[in-house]
Specification:
single chain; alpha/beta; 5-stranded parallel sheet; 5-stranded mixed sheet; elongated
Length: 499
């Protein structure tokens, strides 16, 4: 509803104005009345009416003076002047002040209604114009942000080319960085970052663009600033952002001045964030320093092999190894190459197996798209190798028993048949195996069968039911239960994920 105020020194005239019109029908509501210009001005400043119906001549403080004082308001009201004096000078003064109409007493209801309708129409037009202008500003702002994000995304994907051309491309999108950095965010859920960035920009004197598709931030300063000072600002800003977002990892590249280094900054930010995630740390990490043009440091494969085969939890060892690879290489592609080399080196620890990685293993490594997937893959690849190294410390008798299990897992062997083979009592052999391997006979046999089943399931020529029989399970339903308990997946699900 449009707010209206009535200011008239004559009580009866004022009441007549208030009662002559059905204000609600015209979309209006009266928010107050006043008997003189001074009270009227106070009323207007307090209630902010959009329409004021006022007398021109009032004792002490005229309507003209009141309207003149109110003309400086951000949104001055529409004024309908009322007077009993047929003076052109009064009318001219009010019309110059922007009055909508000039009515003579005695008032006619039709004329007053028409004047109010005209004022309401003008207000509606102005509101529509403001809404349209606001919508245009919003759309223009979105278009600028979209253009900026597209230009920066393209730069981070490929920053080859001449520096002048790269800068010109960004300037067209409204970005002119004197120094910049890239931040990679690993956040659960879908964050509403746009509402958080303006405060960060003001608080830390930065410009920030959120690249939603890659969960990356491009931070820059348009004014020349030292890389050290910019880096300190960026770290503080990312620390503040992480506190607002909660559990997340943010990797921040070191500042750069030349745009041709952008894709390198992107890779190093990703590497720092992925390493944090693998270590399970919710923090901000500044990427390791690297000289311009320096290639990623190649991890020491032999040292990694030793660490992976050392005592410890396989999952934790795999996460630590992949975290180091990602942090040093800074890219998924380089990580894949290192993993292939690492797995090839680990195979040399298995003298009874082939020396070359199977094609399906290489293909699986090439399909890895994150450090988390790589750590899980390495953990699975590592499990049988670690058992092999562990069992090398067993006595010759236990090693022979383990070898027998590895060669006869397809058969219906039992602890009794195994003990008979070595002319031992079953209880004695069971105790011996448990003491030296940490596992019982059934667990060892199940582990061998399931590992072999995994290998066979990668061969799509074999039916799942065939695999069950080939690893010693005549009852497919039982095989299904055991396989899912050991791997967390059904045989078909495992095949879908690994072929």
């Amino acid at each position: 509803m449009i707010r209206v105020a009535v200011i008239e020194d004559n009580y009866y005239t004022r009441q007549a104005i208030l009662r002559a019109i059905d204000w609600a029908v015209l979309g209006c509501v009266v928010v107050g009345e006043a008997p003189d210009g001074l009270e009227g001005e106070r009323l207007i400043r307090r209630e902010s009416p959009q329409i004021v119906v006022t007398d021109i001549r009032m004792p002490g403080y005229s309507g003209i003076e009141m309207v003149q004082n109110l003309s400086a308001l951000p949104s001055p009201p529409k004024v309908i002047a009322v007077t009993g004096y047929q003076s052109f000078a009064y009318a001219q003064s009010f019309l110059k002040l922007g009055a909508v109409d000039y009515l003579l007493k005695p008032l006619k209801t039709e004329e007053l209604c028409e004047a109010v309708r005209r004022a309401v129409g003008l207000i509606r037009q102005e509101e529509e114009a403001k809404e349209e202008l606001s919508s245009l500003h919003t759309e223009l702002s979105r278009s600028r942000l979209s253009l900026r994000a597209q230009a920066l995304s393209a730069l981070l994907l490929d920053s080859s080319g001449k520096e002048e051309e790269l800068r010109l491309r960004l300037q067209k999108a409204g970005v002119a960085p004197a120094v910049y950095a890239v931040a990679k965010l690993i956040i659960p859920g879908v964050p509403a970052l746009e509402g958080l960035l303006p405060a960060l920009e003001r608080g830390y004197s930065l410009k920030i663009c959120y690249l939603a598709s890659e969960r990356q931030l491009f931070l820059w300063s348009e004014r020349p600033v030292s890389p050290e000072r910019f880096c300190a600002r960026a770290l503080e800003a990312m620390g503040s952002l992480r506190q607002k977002l909660g559990e997340c990892q943010i990797g921040l590249s070191r500042p750069a001045k030349e745009l041709r280094q952008a894709d390198g900054c992107c890779d190093r930010a990703k590497g720092a964030a992925e390493a944090l995630r693998l270590r399970g740390e919710a923090a901000v990490s500044l990427a390791a320093a690297r000289e311009e043009g320096e290639l990623p440091e190649a991890p020491n494969i032999a040292e990694l092999c030793r660490s992976l085969l050392a005592p410890g939890e396989p999952a934790a060892l795999a996460r630590t190894a992949v975290g180091g690879i990602v942090e040093s290489t800074g890219s998924i592609y380089a990580m894949q190459n290192c993993l292939i080399q690492l797995c090839q080196a680990l195979l040399r620890e298995r003298p009874d197996k082939d020396k070359e990685l199977p094609r399906q293993v290489i293909r699986k490594i090439r399909d890895l798209s994150s450090a988390g997937e790589a750590a899980q893959f390495l953990e699975e690849f590592l499990a049988p190798l670690r058992e092999r190294v562990q069992y090398e410390e067993c006595s010759p008798l236990v090693r022979a028993a383990l070898s027998y299990i590895g060669s006869h897992y397809q058969e219906e062997i039992t602890l009794q048949t195994l003990a008979d083979t070595f002319f031992l009592a079953p209880a004695y052999l069971s105790t011996l195996i448990k003491r030296q391997t940490g596992k019982g006979f059934v667990d060892l046999l199940t582990g061998v069968r399931i590992e072999r089943a995994k290998e066979l399931l990668r061969d799509v020529r074999l039916q799942v039911q065939q695999v069950s029989g080939l690893v010693g399970y005549r009852d497919y339903a039982y095989f299904y239960q055991v396989f899912k308990k050991q791997t967390g997946l059904s045989p078909k699900e495992y095949r879908q994920q690994n072929c």
